[in-house]
Amino acid sequence: MKKILYAFICGFMILSLTGCGENPKLATGEDVLVSFENEKLNISVEDLYNKLKKDYGINHLIEIIDAKILDSIYKNDEVAEKSVNNQIESMQIYYGGEQKFLETLQSYGYETVDEFKENLFLNYKRDLAVKDYIRDNIKDSDIKKYYDDEIFGDITASHILIKVNTDKSMTDDEKREVEEKVQETIDEIFKKLEEGADFHELAKEYSKDTVSAKNGGRLDAFNKGEMTEEFEKAAQKLEVGKYTTKAVLTEHGYHIIYKEAEKDKPKLDEIKDEIKDTLVDELIANTENIAVFALEWIREENDLKIYDSELKIKYDHYMNQQKSSSSN
Question: Is this model's pTM higher than 0.85 or not?
Protein backbone atom coordinates (compact mmCIF):
# COMPACT_ATOMS: atom_id res chain seq x y z
CA MET A 1 0.00 0.00 0.00
CA LYS A 2 2.88 2.35 0.68
CA LYS A 3 4.08 1.89 -2.90
CA ILE A 4 0.63 2.85 -4.11
CA LEU A 5 0.69 5.96 -1.95
CA TYR A 6 4.05 6.96 -3.41
CA ALA A 7 2.70 6.48 -6.90
CA PHE A 8 -0.39 8.52 -6.11
CA ILE A 9 1.62 11.40 -4.67
CA CYS A 10 4.04 11.23 -7.58
CA GLY A 11 1.08 11.54 -9.92
CA PHE A 12 0.10 14.81 -8.27
CA MET A 13 3.69 16.05 -8.35
CA ILE A 14 4.16 15.17 -11.99
CA LEU A 15 0.88 16.82 -12.85
CA SER A 16 2.00 20.05 -11.21
CA LEU A 17 5.58 20.07 -12.48
CA THR A 18 5.46 18.91 -16.07
CA GLY A 19 4.13 22.20 -17.34
CA CYS A 20 7.30 23.96 -16.17
CA GLY A 21 9.62 22.43 -18.80
CA GLU A 22 9.67 21.72 -22.50
CA ASN A 23 7.63 18.53 -22.27
CA PRO A 24 6.11 17.20 -25.45
CA LYS A 25 2.36 17.64 -25.76
CA LEU A 26 -0.47 15.50 -27.00
CA ALA A 27 -2.78 16.90 -29.63
CA THR A 28 -5.15 17.73 -26.75
CA GLY A 29 -2.46 19.90 -25.14
CA GLU A 30 -1.84 17.49 -22.27
CA ASP A 31 1.74 16.87 -21.10
CA VAL A 32 3.30 13.61 -22.26
CA LEU A 33 4.59 11.36 -19.50
CA VAL A 34 5.68 8.39 -21.65
CA SER A 35 6.24 8.56 -25.42
CA PHE A 36 6.52 5.94 -28.17
CA GLU A 37 7.52 5.97 -31.78
CA ASN A 38 3.83 5.66 -32.52
CA GLU A 39 2.50 8.85 -30.99
CA LYS A 40 -0.95 7.33 -30.66
CA LEU A 41 0.46 5.15 -27.85
CA ASN A 42 1.78 8.09 -25.82
CA ILE A 43 0.71 8.27 -22.14
CA SER A 44 -0.13 11.64 -20.64
CA VAL A 45 0.25 12.84 -17.08
CA GLU A 46 -3.54 13.02 -16.96
CA ASP A 47 -3.74 9.32 -17.84
CA LEU A 48 -1.64 8.40 -14.83
CA TYR A 49 -3.39 10.83 -12.52
CA ASN A 50 -6.86 9.59 -13.48
CA LYS A 51 -5.85 5.95 -13.08
CA LEU A 52 -4.34 6.51 -9.63
CA LYS A 53 -7.26 8.70 -8.60
CA LYS A 54 -9.79 6.08 -9.62
CA ASP A 55 -8.09 3.12 -7.97
CA TYR A 56 -6.50 4.55 -4.85
CA GLY A 57 -7.29 8.23 -4.65
CA ILE A 58 -9.80 8.70 -1.88
CA ASN A 59 -8.12 6.73 0.92
CA HIS A 60 -4.77 8.40 0.38
CA LEU A 61 -6.32 11.82 -0.15
CA ILE A 62 -7.97 11.50 3.28
CA GLU A 63 -4.58 10.57 4.79
CA ILE A 64 -2.98 13.63 3.25
CA ILE A 65 -5.86 15.87 4.38
CA ASP A 66 -5.71 14.61 7.97
CA ALA A 67 -1.93 14.85 8.11
CA LYS A 68 -2.03 18.47 6.93
CA ILE A 69 -4.70 19.49 9.45
CA LEU A 70 -3.45 17.54 12.45
CA ASP A 71 0.20 18.46 11.95
CA SER A 72 -0.89 22.08 12.27
CA ILE A 73 -2.67 21.33 15.58
CA TYR A 74 -0.49 18.72 17.26
CA LYS A 75 3.29 18.71 17.28
CA ASN A 76 5.64 15.75 17.45
CA ASP A 77 6.53 16.47 21.08
CA GLU A 78 8.28 14.19 23.58
CA VAL A 79 5.03 12.43 24.49
CA ALA A 80 4.25 11.68 20.84
CA GLU A 81 7.82 10.55 20.17
CA LYS A 82 7.74 8.23 23.17
CA SER A 83 4.39 6.71 22.14
CA VAL A 84 5.55 6.07 18.57
CA ASN A 85 8.96 4.74 19.61
CA ASN A 86 7.34 2.35 22.09
CA GLN A 87 5.18 0.99 19.28
CA ILE A 88 8.24 0.56 17.06
CA GLU A 89 10.13 -1.27 19.81
CA SER A 90 7.17 -3.61 20.44
CA MET A 91 6.90 -4.39 16.72
CA GLN A 92 10.63 -5.06 16.46
CA ILE A 93 10.36 -7.57 19.30
CA TYR A 94 7.29 -9.17 17.69
CA TYR A 95 8.98 -9.56 14.30
CA GLY A 96 12.23 -10.89 15.78
CA GLY A 97 14.56 -7.91 15.74
CA GLU A 98 15.29 -4.66 13.94
CA GLN A 99 16.45 -6.23 10.68
CA LYS A 100 13.48 -8.57 10.29
CA PHE A 101 11.12 -5.74 11.16
CA LEU A 102 12.72 -3.53 8.50
CA GLU A 103 12.45 -6.35 5.95
CA THR A 104 8.76 -6.68 6.80
CA LEU A 105 8.24 -2.95 6.32
CA GLN A 106 10.10 -3.03 3.01
CA SER A 107 7.80 -5.80 1.80
CA TYR A 108 4.97 -3.30 2.25
CA GLY A 109 6.83 -0.57 0.36
CA TYR A 110 8.49 1.36 3.16
CA GLU A 111 12.18 2.04 2.58
CA THR A 112 12.97 2.99 6.19
CA VAL A 113 11.48 2.77 9.67
CA ASP A 114 11.20 6.57 9.72
CA GLU A 115 8.79 6.44 6.78
CA PHE A 116 6.60 4.00 8.71
CA LYS A 117 6.72 6.31 11.73
CA GLU A 118 4.84 8.94 9.71
CA ASN A 119 1.78 6.66 9.71
CA LEU A 120 2.10 6.05 13.45
CA PHE A 121 2.31 9.77 14.12
CA LEU A 122 -0.82 10.31 12.02
CA ASN A 123 -2.73 7.66 13.96
CA TYR A 124 -1.49 9.11 17.26
CA LYS A 125 -2.72 12.57 16.28
CA ARG A 126 -6.04 11.21 15.04
CA ASP A 127 -6.56 9.65 18.47
CA LEU A 128 -5.78 12.96 20.15
CA ALA A 129 -8.17 14.80 17.84
CA VAL A 130 -11.00 12.36 18.51
CA LYS A 131 -10.51 12.61 22.28
CA ASP A 132 -10.44 16.42 22.15
CA TYR A 133 -13.60 16.43 20.02
CA ILE A 134 -15.45 14.21 22.51
CA ARG A 135 -14.12 16.11 25.52
CA ASP A 136 -15.38 19.41 24.08
CA ASN A 137 -18.86 17.91 23.68
CA ILE A 138 -19.25 16.44 27.17
CA LYS A 139 -21.79 18.45 29.16
CA ASP A 140 -21.55 19.45 32.80
CA SER A 141 -24.77 17.51 33.37
CA ASP A 142 -23.05 14.33 32.10
CA ILE A 143 -20.18 14.89 34.54
CA LYS A 144 -22.58 15.54 37.45
CA LYS A 145 -24.57 12.39 36.70
CA TYR A 146 -21.42 10.27 36.60
CA TYR A 147 -20.27 11.84 39.86
CA ASP A 148 -23.58 11.07 41.57
CA ASP A 149 -23.90 7.52 40.23
CA GLU A 150 -20.34 6.22 40.07
CA ILE A 151 -18.02 8.13 42.39
CA PHE A 152 -17.58 7.01 45.98
CA GLY A 153 -15.04 7.39 48.78
CA ASP A 154 -12.44 4.72 49.51
CA ILE A 155 -14.09 1.57 50.86
CA THR A 156 -12.56 -0.80 53.37
CA ALA A 157 -14.13 -4.26 53.37
CA SER A 158 -13.56 -7.83 54.43
CA HIS A 159 -14.72 -10.90 52.58
CA ILE A 160 -15.06 -14.64 52.72
CA LEU A 161 -14.24 -16.27 49.39
CA ILE A 162 -15.72 -19.64 48.47
CA LYS A 163 -14.19 -21.00 45.27
CA VAL A 164 -16.00 -23.19 42.74
CA ASN A 165 -13.44 -25.77 41.67
CA THR A 166 -14.82 -27.12 38.41
CA ASP A 167 -13.16 -27.63 35.04
CA LYS A 168 -14.08 -28.63 31.50
CA SER A 169 -13.10 -32.27 32.04
CA MET A 170 -15.92 -32.74 34.59
CA THR A 171 -19.28 -34.19 33.69
CA ASP A 172 -22.41 -32.15 34.31
CA ASP A 173 -23.22 -34.31 37.32
CA GLU A 174 -19.77 -33.74 38.80
CA LYS A 175 -20.08 -29.97 38.30
CA ARG A 176 -23.52 -29.99 39.87
CA GLU A 177 -22.16 -31.88 42.89
CA VAL A 178 -19.38 -29.31 43.37
CA GLU A 179 -21.84 -26.42 43.12
CA GLU A 180 -24.16 -28.05 45.64
CA LYS A 181 -21.29 -28.39 48.13
CA VAL A 182 -20.37 -24.74 47.58
CA GLN A 183 -23.96 -23.69 48.27
CA GLU A 184 -24.01 -25.82 51.43
CA THR A 185 -20.87 -24.04 52.65
CA ILE A 186 -22.37 -20.62 51.87
CA ASP A 187 -25.60 -21.50 53.70
CA GLU A 188 -23.57 -22.74 56.68
CA ILE A 189 -21.62 -19.44 56.87
CA PHE A 190 -24.78 -17.32 56.67
CA LYS A 191 -26.42 -19.43 59.38
CA LYS A 192 -23.46 -18.84 61.71
CA LEU A 193 -23.50 -15.10 60.95
CA GLU A 194 -27.19 -14.93 61.79
CA GLU A 195 -26.43 -16.70 65.07
CA GLY A 196 -23.94 -13.96 65.92
CA ALA A 197 -20.61 -15.48 64.88
CA ASP A 198 -17.74 -13.05 64.26
CA PHE A 199 -17.29 -12.35 60.54
CA HIS A 200 -13.49 -12.17 60.76
CA GLU A 201 -13.21 -15.48 62.59
CA LEU A 202 -15.38 -17.14 59.95
CA ALA A 203 -13.13 -15.66 57.25
CA LYS A 204 -10.11 -17.28 58.90
CA GLU A 205 -11.95 -20.61 58.94
CA TYR A 206 -13.68 -20.64 55.56
CA SER A 207 -12.15 -18.15 53.11
CA LYS A 208 -10.09 -19.52 50.24
CA ASP A 209 -8.39 -16.15 49.80
CA THR A 210 -5.38 -17.31 51.76
CA VAL A 211 -3.77 -13.85 51.88
CA SER A 212 -6.69 -11.97 53.43
CA ALA A 213 -7.98 -14.93 55.45
CA LYS A 214 -5.00 -14.70 57.81
CA ASN A 215 -6.17 -11.17 58.63
CA GLY A 216 -9.80 -12.05 59.11
CA GLY A 217 -10.68 -11.44 55.44
CA ARG A 218 -9.67 -7.77 55.59
CA LEU A 219 -8.79 -6.18 52.24
CA ASP A 220 -6.89 -3.02 51.40
CA ALA A 221 -9.03 0.07 50.84
CA PHE A 222 -10.22 0.31 47.24
CA ASN A 223 -12.03 2.62 44.86
CA LYS A 224 -13.66 2.45 41.44
CA GLY A 225 -12.02 0.06 39.01
CA GLU A 226 -9.75 -1.61 41.57
CA MET A 227 -11.99 -4.63 42.23
CA THR A 228 -14.16 -6.74 39.97
CA GLU A 229 -17.32 -4.85 38.98
CA GLU A 230 -19.68 -7.21 40.82
CA PHE A 231 -17.68 -6.98 44.04
CA GLU A 232 -17.35 -3.21 43.78
CA LYS A 233 -21.05 -2.57 43.23
CA ALA A 234 -22.10 -4.88 46.04
CA ALA A 235 -19.71 -3.22 48.50
CA GLN A 236 -20.80 0.24 47.39
CA LYS A 237 -24.47 -0.53 48.13
CA LEU A 238 -23.78 -1.91 51.61
CA GLU A 239 -24.16 0.12 54.77
CA VAL A 240 -21.09 0.33 56.96
CA GLY A 241 -21.16 -2.50 59.51
CA LYS A 242 -23.38 -4.74 57.33
CA TYR A 243 -22.63 -7.81 55.23
CA THR A 244 -24.22 -8.99 51.98
CA THR A 245 -27.31 -11.11 52.47
CA LYS A 246 -26.43 -13.14 49.39
CA ALA A 247 -23.09 -14.39 48.13
CA VAL A 248 -21.73 -12.28 45.27
CA LEU A 249 -20.46 -14.23 42.27
CA THR A 250 -17.34 -12.98 40.48
CA GLU A 251 -14.73 -14.63 38.28
CA HIS A 252 -12.92 -15.68 41.48
CA GLY A 253 -15.85 -17.45 43.10
CA TYR A 254 -18.53 -16.50 45.65
CA HIS A 255 -17.90 -13.64 48.11
CA ILE A 256 -19.64 -12.76 51.32
CA ILE A 257 -18.70 -9.12 51.87
CA TYR A 258 -18.61 -7.11 55.10
CA LYS A 259 -18.28 -3.32 54.80
CA GLU A 260 -15.87 -1.98 57.39
CA ALA A 261 -15.77 1.73 56.47
CA GLU A 262 -16.23 4.25 53.67
CA LYS A 263 -14.58 7.67 53.38
CA ASP A 264 -16.37 10.72 52.03
CA LYS A 265 -16.06 10.96 48.27
CA PRO A 266 -13.96 13.79 46.85
CA LYS A 267 -15.62 17.03 45.82
CA LEU A 268 -16.78 17.31 42.23
CA ASP A 269 -14.44 20.18 41.39
CA GLU A 270 -11.44 18.13 42.54
CA ILE A 271 -12.05 15.28 40.10
CA LYS A 272 -13.98 16.95 37.28
CA ASP A 273 -11.16 16.53 34.76
CA GLU A 274 -10.64 12.93 35.80
CA ILE A 275 -14.33 12.17 35.26
CA LYS A 276 -14.18 13.86 31.86
CA ASP A 277 -11.27 11.63 30.83
CA THR A 278 -13.20 8.57 31.98
CA LEU A 279 -16.29 9.60 29.99
CA VAL A 280 -14.12 10.16 26.90
CA ASP A 281 -12.66 6.66 27.19
CA GLU A 282 -16.10 5.12 27.74
CA LEU A 283 -17.58 6.89 24.71
CA ILE A 284 -14.71 5.75 22.50
CA ALA A 285 -15.08 2.17 23.74
CA ASN A 286 -18.88 2.04 23.50
CA THR A 287 -19.77 4.29 20.54
CA GLU A 288 -19.18 2.65 17.19
CA ASN A 289 -17.36 4.77 14.59
CA ILE A 290 -17.25 7.88 16.76
CA ALA A 291 -13.84 8.64 15.23
CA VAL A 292 -15.48 8.94 11.80
CA PHE A 293 -17.80 11.70 13.00
CA ALA A 294 -15.06 13.45 14.97
CA LEU A 295 -12.58 13.57 12.09
CA GLU A 296 -15.26 14.68 9.63
CA TRP A 297 -16.16 17.55 11.97
CA ILE A 298 -12.50 18.58 12.26
CA ARG A 299 -12.14 18.67 8.47
CA GLU A 300 -15.29 20.77 8.13
CA GLU A 301 -14.07 23.13 10.87
CA ASN A 302 -10.98 23.68 8.73
CA ASP A 303 -13.23 24.57 5.75
CA LEU A 304 -12.34 21.52 3.67
CA LYS A 305 -13.12 21.89 -0.03
CA ILE A 306 -12.32 19.25 -2.65
CA TYR A 307 -12.21 20.81 -6.11
CA ASP A 308 -11.87 17.61 -8.11
CA SER A 309 -15.56 16.74 -8.60
CA GLU A 310 -14.88 13.01 -8.99
CA LEU A 311 -12.88 12.85 -5.76
CA LYS A 312 -15.50 14.97 -4.01
CA ILE A 313 -18.19 12.45 -4.92
CA LYS A 314 -15.96 9.59 -3.78
CA TYR A 315 -15.24 11.39 -0.49
CA ASP A 316 -18.94 11.99 0.23
CA HIS A 317 -19.78 8.39 -0.65
CA TYR A 318 -16.94 7.08 1.53
CA MET A 319 -18.03 9.18 4.53
CA ASN A 320 -21.68 8.18 4.13
CA GLN A 321 -20.65 4.53 4.08
CA GLN A 322 -18.54 4.94 7.21
CA LYS A 323 -21.29 6.74 9.09
CA SER A 324 -24.09 4.43 7.99
CA SER A 325 -22.18 1.42 9.33
CA SER A 326 -22.46 2.93 12.82
CA SER A 327 -25.30 1.72 15.03
CA ASN A 328 -25.07 4.86 17.17
Answer: no
